[in-house]
Structures are given as C-alpha cells and as structure tokens.
Design brief:
The protein is of the alpha/beta class and 329 residues long. It has helices at 5-16, 30-39, 112-126, 145-156, 176-185, 200-206, 215-229, 247-257, 282-294, 315-328, and strands spanning 46-52, 59-64, 70-78, 81-86, 89-91, 106-109, 130-135, 168-172, 190-194, 233-239, 262-268, 299-301. It folds into two domains: 1-42, DNA polymerase, domain 1 (Orthogonal Bundle), CATH 1.10.150; 43-328, Alpha-Beta Barrel (TIM Barrel). The strands form two sheets. It has a ten-stranded mixed sheet, sandwiched between helices. Strands 5-6 form a two-stranded antiparallel ribbon. It is globular, with a radius of gyration of 21 Å. The active site is at residues 72, 313.
Amino acid sequence: MGEKKYRGKQIFEWVNKGAKRWEDMTNIGKVLKEKLQKNTFITHVKIEKKMVSKIDGTTKYLFLLEDKNIIEGVVMKYKHGFTACISSQVGCVMGCSFCASTIGGLIRDLRAGEMIDQILQMQQDLGERISNIVLMGSGEPLHNYREVMKFLEIVNSESGLNIGNRHITLSTCGLVPEIKKLADLQIPINLAVSLHAPNDETRQIMMPIAKKYSIKALMEACEYYLQKNNRRITFEYALVKEVNDEEVHAKQLGQLLKGMLCYVNLIPVNTVAEARYEKSREEQVKRFQKVLKSQGVEATIRREMGADIDAACGQLRNNYINKKIKEKQ
C-alpha cells in the first residue's frame, strides 16, 4: 500500500492483541485508517457456543465464521499451562472412518487469520494465555499447506502471539509429499502422524489416504523428517475393538517402529454413531501398551478429556449441524 514498514508492524501487533476495528488502533493516523477500511478487513471469528466440562474444565467452542460456516476449538488445562486445539479446515476430505470431522466432507480451507483468531478468541474469553497449540481439530493441516505454513510463521512471531515452535504440534493423516516439504523447512515443531494400523490392509479399511500412500512410503517420509529435524515423532493410534487392537497388531506395530525416534499415543476411539465402531476395553488398551513396550517402543495412553461435552474433534460441530437441519425440516 506504499506505507512505511513500521506501520505494518503496528497493525500486526494490534491485530494480534485482538483488535477488530481500525478505529481502535490509537497510533494509526486517520488517513491510513480510512485507506485500510476501504481496502482491507480484519477476520472476526465469533463464539457461537461454549461448553465447559464438569470433569476436568476442558472448554469446547463452536466458532461462527463470517460466511456462516462452523468450526471447532478446544482448550485443555494442564499443569504446564493452557493448550488450544484448533481447526485448519471447515470439515475434512480425508474420510477416516472413525472421525466425526469428515462427515459431510470438506467445505473449504481456513485462512491463516481464521486459525489465529481461534486462539485470540479463546484467550480473550478465558482471560488466560495459550501456551501450546495442537493442529488436531477439524481438517487435515497439510492439505491446507500454504495457509498453515503462514499460520506457523505468524503465531511464532515475537510481535504476534510469540508461541514457540516447540510448543506447537501438527497432526497429519500421512500426506507423504507434504511431510517431506515440511521436513525441508526444518521448523522445530512437533509432528504427530495418525497411523492407526500396523499394516496396509487394516489401515486402508480405516483411512482412505492409505490407498494412495502405503505404510512403507509413509515410514520413509517419517525417516526423512527425522533426518532433517531430529525431533521425536508421535504416532497416533486410535484403538477400535476387534479391528486394530489385537495382540498381533501390537506386535506388528512394534516391529514397524522399533529403533525409530518416536513414541505411540494410544487413543481409545471416540464413539461416532455413523462409524459403528466400538471403543477397546481398558484392559485391552493396557495389554496393547505392554506389548509395544516389550518390543522397545514407548507408548502412552491418552487421558480422555472433556468426555461429558463431546470434546473429540468433529463431534460437537456434527451434532450442531444435524440439529440445524432438523430445525429447518
């Protein structure tokens, strides 16, 4: 716009403080404000619904976008601070059979500003600073590669939210080319890969992306990521009763990951009516963990949070949309 560089920094800092109107920016001149008002806009994500868990204080948000689409966000409180789980897309095209986020498919990508604004709205509502971010909400972050990379740059900026890369986790279902592209950037974020099966046959039943990228190709991409970044990878494994939770699966997974700089996050699958999957029994989950550890693969069992408020990704949004459809009928 032909303005001096420091003006850009001033505006950037205001927006990252949560300013939504140009007139609120007290150190910006009137002429520039009018120019900005005419040529630009500030993203405004609104809280449509908020639910707070009585069990652990986990807070779930439904955000209303300017085009009336709905996305989700979750804030979880830990000893080390507040972690925000945010969405990167409206819906999801990946089609994982156990996930509510994919029901209805992909509507559109989120802009970097819409991702940032989820965090700003959470901070403003809670009166607390978000110290950790997980890109594990609705959508596949690497399918929205350009905007997610822009988001990472903005959120890490000292003039912005100043959240360190080591406090950011990006979760992917396994887009092999994009994992390699991310590796080449050598951004020291945490990578979480949704694996969910130790062999192609089982994984293809659960995750359509497995038909495009084999486990061998995915493991090669993960090894490449480790060569470039030397940061431990998390493998997410949603345990489904009598699908991928047997001892044979645990042994296969142990052999697949043995010797790799990684650990496995075991997740008792969330109940999604449309998926018809059942959660593995607690003793089965612990047995699965024991087998992995016996093969030298570190494994943790994810603590269930916000169970009383549909806090898993896609659940609340899906219920909200279904309710709206019924109301129209």
